């Protein structure tokens, strides 16, 4: 594992801006803490946290070409390309994690792939990365500290609030809402996963 950590740090420091590198590091730190509180593998949380934005250095065009070159097609691909191609970094990140670092663990790969938009029936690790990405120490919005504390006490409640706030953010700005985020919302609401 140590060797992978060094490889990941080398890759991130070479490809990401210092700000994005710091963000990834902060996400990993929070993810490890949340993993420990939820009794799941902390090394997997660290790896997923560090790698979740590993494709963030690519431009929109590079992301589209990269995914087309990998012959990767997935739900809403055309719509994302048209309306919000930067969101493709999560999908490209999963592929880089597989190719560059030989990561095979499905849970880590899904946590990277779904960190922006979520999906139905997410694993604990997926929810941890989704939440940690939004409330890591480097994030500046007003609810960060409160949601960090909530996540440490009740991951599901924090997950649902982060999901709600992400959707509110998009609607407030009148920008395109990724249909998979709507699918995530609908799944959690219809399966009574909404925290009270
Ligand atoms: Fe991201
Ligand atoms: Fe991120």
Explain what the structure shows.
The protein has helices spanning 2-15, 18-37, 42-51, 60-69, 77-83, 89-101, 106-113, 124-135, 144-153, 155-172, 179-190. It is an all-alpha fold. The chain has a single domain, classed as Hypothetical protein af1432 (Orthogonal Bundle). The radius of gyration is 16 Å and the shape is globular. Bound molecules: fe (ii) ion (2 copies).
N to C succession of SSEs: HHHHHHHHHHH
CATH architecture level-2 label = Orthogonal Bundle
CATH class: Mainly Alpha
What's the CATH superfamily, by name? Hypothetical protein af1432
Shape: globular
Say what the CATH topology is: Hypothetical protein af1432
Helix count equals: 11
Helix content: 55-70%
User: How large a portion of the residues is in β-strands, by DSSP E?
Assistant: under 5%
Distance between the termini: 39 Å
List keywords for this structure.
mainly alpha, 11 helices, globular, binds fe (ii) ion
List the helices and strands and how they pair.
Blueprint: H1 2-15, H2 18-37, H3 42-51, H4 60-69, H5 77-83, H6 89-101, H7 106-113, H8 124-135, H9 144-153, H10 155-172, H11 179-190
Helix pairs in contact: 2-3, 2-8, 2-9, 3-7, 3-8, 6-7, 7-8, 8-9, 8-10, 9-10, 10-11
Bound molecules: fe (ii) ion (FE2) (2 copies).
The site of one fe (ii) ion has 5 residues, from α2.
